[in-house]
Amino acid sequence: MRIEVGEVFPSKKQLQLQLGSYCLANRFQIRVFKSDTTRYQVWCIVEDCSWKMRAARVQNSDYFRIRKFCNHHTCSTEARFPHQRQASARVIGENIKDKFHDHRLYKPKEIVHDIQREFGISCNYQKGYRARHIA
Question: Are 113 and 133 in contact (CB under 8 A)?
Fold first, then answer.
């Protein structure tokens, strides 16, 4: 999964979802610096890290385009991944959609186990349950 300058997303919600999945896959967390109807700026959760991303709405549309993106972390992995804030039920649901084709009865307990195995983060049964319904 990659994110690049100039990439366009159909909505801010889709941008946030893609960015959440990107954070899970690359094992880091972000904090929102500015977020409103026309812009979205996020930084690495570690104060002195240089990783930043800025996106803005394309004129007269709901599309969001990445304007600036510094994909270089100056912090250590341990500092940026003690737990995962971006692991929302929506992000987890998007990551497990493909598994529903294979497993009709994909139980929340299995979702929790798979998230632990694939991403190295823990989530509770309730989040697994919500992710299942979102997927």
Answer: no
Task: Give the type of residue at 8.
Answer: V
User: Which residue(s) pair with 40 in the sheet?
Assistant: 35, 55
Helix, strand, or coil (residue 17): helix
Q: Cβ(72)–Cβ(103) under 8 Å?
A: no
Detail the DSSP E strand segments found in 4-103: 8-9, 30-35, 39-44, 52-57, 64-70
Per-residue tokens: 65: 């385009």
Task: Give CA–CA dist 25/19, Å, rounded.
Answer: 10
For each of the chain's 135 residues, which pLDDT tens digit applies?
789 999 999 999 999 989 988 888 888 888 899 999 999 999 988 888 999 999 999 999 999 999 999 999 888 776 656 566 667 777 788 777 777 666 667 888 888 888 888 877 777 888 888 888 777
